[in-house]
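Here is one such protein, fold included:

. . .
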Amino acid sequence: MSTIFPNSMAKLRDDGTGDGVDVVMRTKDRPALLGRALASVVNQWHANWHLYLINDGGEAAPVDALVQVFAEPLAGRITVIHNPASLGMSAAANLGLSRGTSAFVATHDDDDSWDPAFLATGAAFLLAPEQRRFGAVLTRWNRVEERFDGTTVEITAAAVQGYDGAVVDFLDVLRTPQVPPIALLWRRNVAATAGFLNSHLPVLDDWDFNLRALQLADIALLPEPLANYHVRVSADAGDYANTITDGLPTHLRYNTLYRNSLLRAYLDKDPARIGLVAALLKNGELARQQIEAVQIASHRELSGNQHHLNTRLDGIEAEVREIRALLEKIWGAITQTA
């Protein structure tokens, strides 16, 4: 089985041409953040985009009012869809993702933002012939902590996050669902072939999608922090809360349920594989024990060296005290003679 992206192209639907980007934005009753998100899109240096704004069961009037504020730069480049009732985050995003026909797709939630260079940098990289093997680009991102008082947002802290290297390690993504969708730009054919988002998952749908898409193509890493992942740290953020913070118990529960489902699907094909899994877990446990043993031995060695050093320092201090006492005696003898 091929592991190189160009040889996997037969698997992929050939959707989208050119340098256009379909941007999908989900929102629901968060006008205080939606304006920032719309400004983030219209301020992109790369101008060939179309925004699909999905109002998933929220009030329509505030959304329409904010769209009107940006009427001039959005003209001809926005499709607004008002869902009478909420379909859920995944289904709402899929409604926009499936409408577009551009070469690239990106999801931009209403509480996040981009650096103006995000689309230009990502699209230029993916359009380069030598980068054909990559199905997406992932930039570094700024994790921005902010407080919301009901009307305004105050940024309290920010830190750059992301992976090192030039290519996303599949195992890193498998270990933990840390990649924010705002930092990814996908080729449409990869996203469409992977099947977009799983609407049966209330959380971790983006993690599930990334794992499915990585089975089709690699993701390139770009070193610049060109995306901003905003996290409300206010205890009473209400509708403005992040699902990862406000719904942490649900995230932890579905993290286990999802991993169980992956393992179950693997074992269902051949129940004897459970022996292989058990052996890998055993080897992993032995490796962990060996690492701990080395750490303990190193600590003991360092402690022994520290004890030896302390003993030596004590000896030196004693010698210094003896020399000082001798000098005081000599000085006393000199002064008496004088």
Observations:
- The radius of gyration is 29 Å.
- Residues 1-10 have pLDDT under 50 and may be disordered.
- DSSP finds eleven helices and nine strands in the chain.
- The longest strand covers residues 134-148.
